[in-house]
Each structure stands twice: as structure tokens, then as C-alpha cells.
Design a protein that fits this description.
- 23% of the residues lie in helices and 32% in strands.
- It starts with a helix and ends in an 18-residue tail after the last strand.
- The protein has one domain.
- 4% of the residues are buried.
- The protein has helices at residues 5-12, 48-60; strands at 16-25, 33-42, 65-73.
- The mean pLDDT is 85.
């Protein structure tokens, strides 16, 4: 379900639901990998929101990134969003 109208407007503007599986090395045990799942709405193909998050991760968190795998899905397509050709009032 949509959180608010801004989220709906993003979907109409072409934003997609992006899920990233992030593998990173444990700071105290670099031989172990840990998984983190990130999900948000973002624009393909440059993924500015995910890129901003990963930049923050690299600058501020101790666990170095190992890999990032991305899955994306367009939530609303233009064919699924009907536009009204007529609007009127009936008494």
C-alpha cells in the first residue's frame, strides 16, 4: 500500500521499487560476510538513491562492501493507470 501521495507521484514519474542485497565484511572478522537488504524507490539506470546510500556506507560504516546485487520492479505501468476522458456530475 502507498505511504503517501509523494510515493505515488514517484511511481507515476518512472521510479521503480529497487531491492539491493548488500554483502559486506564483518569489521571484527573480515573472513565472514554479512547480508544487508536495502529497499526504496529509485530511478533506473543510475540509481541515485542507492548510490547515495552506498556512498554513505563507505564513508561512515566500518564493514567494507563486498558486493551489491540489485533487483528492480516497476510498480505502476502506464497501462495500469487509466486516465479519465470525461468528468461530470450527475444529480
Amino acid at each position: 500500500m502507498l505511504r503517501d501521495t509523494r510515493e505515488f507521484a514517484k511511481m507515476i514519474d518512472g521510479y521503480r521499487l529497487v531491492t539491493a542485497e548488500i554483502l559486506y565484511r564483518m569489521p571484527d572478522h573480515p573472513g565472514f560476510l554479512q547480508t544487508f537488504v536495502w529497499q526504496d524507490y529509485d530511478l533506473e539506470p543510475k540509481y541515485p538513491t542507492l548510490t547515495k546510500f552506498l556512498d554513505y556506507w563507505e564513508k561512515n560504516l566500518d564493514g567494507p562492501l563486498f558486493s551489491v546485487r540489485i533487483a528492480t520492479k516497476r510498480v505502476i505501468t502506464p497501462a495500469e493507470f487509466p486516465y479519465a476522458d470525461f468528468m461530470g456530475v450527475l444529480h
